[in-house]
Specification:
Blueprint: H1 2-9, H2 18-33, E1 39-43, H3 47-61, E2 69-73, H4 83-93, E3 98-100
Parallel strand pairs: 1-2, 2-3
């Protein structure tokens, strides 16, 4: 039943790895953005936007300068204590061009 759900209903393919998925995301981002565009991204401070920012940064940085991704984090006060600061610190350690408001 689990096999049927994963492979027949959800369309999962054998040989799936996280590394392959990460490469697919990089290729997609590079194709969609191209070589000369700049991306503006709002980072909410949560996991989803932080992972998206990290993927965008990595995909756009390959062979180019880090200024192609302009990320803004707006600390709205609705996150867990210190969560926004932790996300900002983590992304800045990756070299992401991140502005905090």
């Amino acid at each position: 039943m689990l096999h049927n759900f994963l492979f027949d209903i959800c369309g999962l393919q054998e040989g799936f790895t996280l590394e392959k998925r990460k490469q697919q995301c990089n290729d997609y981002i590079q194709h969609m953005v191209g070589r000369d565009k700049i991306v503006l991204m709002l980072v909410s401070g949560g996991v989803d936007s932080a992972v998206c920012a990290a993927l965008l940064h990595k995909a756009l940085l390959q062979g180019y300068d880090s200024s192609r991704l302009q990320a803004i984090n707006i600390d709205n006060g609705f996150l867990r204590k210190d969560e926004s600061e932790q996300v900002v610190t983590s992304l800045q350690q990756l070299g992401l061009n991140l502005r905090e408001i």
